[in-house]
Amino acid sequence: MFDFTLHATEGAARTGTFTTPHGNVETPVFMPVGTSGSVKGVSPEEVEGTGASMILANTYHLYLRPGHELVRELGGVHAFMRWDGPILTDSGGYQVFSLSGSNKIRDDGVVFQSHIDGSSHLFTPESVMDIQRALGADVVMAFDQCPPGGVSREEAEVANRRTLDWLLRCRDRFQVLDDDVGDGKQSLFPVLQGNIYEDLRLEHLRAFLDLGDWDGMGIGGLSVGEGKDDMWRVLEALHAEIPDGLPRYLMGVGYPDDFLGAVARGCDMFDCVAPTRNARHGTAWTAVEGQINLKAARFIRDREPIDPGCDCYACQGYDRAYIRHLCVSSELFGARLVSIHNIRFLVRLAEESRERITNGTFQSWSRDWLERYRASKEVVVEQ
Questions:
Q1: In a domain? residue 17
Q2: E strands present in 127-241
Q3: Of the residues 90, 138, 144, 215, which is catalytic?
Q4: On the chain, which terminus has fewer CB atoms closer than 10 Å, C or N?
């Protein structure tokens, strides 16, 4: 039910098809993030209109509100979100560990306080599997410890050991739940840690592979404060050892230049809140001008679309002058239009990446694209 077929390669860059119970996903793929059951400010129909094939939801947020059992009662996360395509749920580990001032990490799990009402909760590998089973996403992520950037080797080793222990418990609980239901409609991805230490990353990977077969591999703990050179070095080391038949999910990475850099190093699946978060500050991505802040005064009379080469709903119907007015006036429609554009921008980037890899021009095209993008990218000032 979960298969990955590799179609073409150019260097480390790959195209493939990931098969799920809710449809096929062509890779490389960008997955918009619907943290609390919604891609912020954008309807499911509008997300589908961007060409997105798979989206993300978050275990931590849906557990706290409205509650995983209520989501189960209402038909599962697909029916709840009105999304018929594939869904992946993050384990919530990143959110729990980011609450560094209010959590307590133990070998059995993590005690944390709700950001909503301050109530105390315990996430264990078993409970996280139970929650994700209730939510019913296609792909569920193992509970892992994600250390922040800049941790010592010793701290990274502790997180690796704990993540491996938790993966064993996740796998055991997942198997029990799968045997009880017997439908095989969920796939469990482990999450590689190791921070910027290549040997720890590879040691973790080999331990995961020794445990048996997986349908895919999450790569966590990158884009958490380390330098880009460190991220690229780690991805290059992992590419050489992750089996070709496993889709590689680089968690939390989705800025355009990072996306192309990671595709060039063998990554297949990506998610990031940046398209909608940036949109709420009036920040848009363009192919020619790079990253622009639509609140800037220079757009006050600009009758061009956000990105003249874009086919999204926003660019086909509205100009920069109007969208600037909406953004500086804090009108919700402005953030919605820029969100639709930014999501479509990344989906188009994934589409063109697949096309370029297939015809063998990805390396030269991406190099030229990145040079143009980085040369023109504005320094964004949030207002």
A1: yes
A2: 139-141, 187-189, 191-192, 217-219
A3: 90
A4: C
